[in-house]
Amino acid sequence: MATRSKQIILSNCVVHYLESGTSDKPPVVFLHGMKFQAATWEQLGTLTKVAEAGFRAIALDMPGFGSSPSCDLPAGSVLVEFFQKIGLQSPILVGPSMGGRISLEFALDHPSLLGGLVLVGSVGVAENHERLPRLKIPLLIVWGGKDQIAPPAHADLLHKAVAGSTKVVIDSAPHPCYLEEPEKWHDTLINFLATY
User: Fold this and answer.
1) Which of 16, 32, 154, 175 is catalytic?
2) Catalytic residue among 147, 154, 165, 186
3) Model pTM?
4) What is the pLDDT of residues 102-154, one digit of tens each?
5) Which CATH number covers residue 84?
6) Other C-beta atoms lying within 10 Å of the C-beta of residue 70
7) Does 159 qualify as catalytic in the annotation?
């Protein structure tokens, strides 16, 4: 399954992204953590796995990361404009760590634009805890049991606050649990996507 490298201009920003697969199912959009980029998902094989499962998989380099130059467009505005420009309807947004905070806050601020949310060791949970019960879209919570950056207790907080959410803890994994246990990560993600 070939991965295509593309870029798009959003307001005054050039945003690079990778894309694999095509489908009439909801597209799956991957953000990244502070030390990573869109290419991380390609190297891990996640884009290929998701495309092979019959979905359109897209990984963004947020401004200032990977192959996207820095710009002053807020993260939420980047996503709104990106979805509009490439015609994404109700995508499933996947965010680890820093990308998890962006994804969580985007879902809370723009609930009608997403069809699902996957948070992986997300930061920003405690800061948004009062708003969490507002999340009404399908939510998958994936956490490393040995995460020392985003405490596993935050996975519990999310799970309790969001009705119908699914929580999976990868017991032996640290913060980037998807990198440490890619097979478990891919199985968990594909099982979640199978509900669409």
Assistant:
1) 175
2) 147
3) 0.97
4) 999 999 999 999 999 999 999 999 999 999 999 999 999 999 999 999 999 99
5) 3.40.50.1820
6) 10
7) no
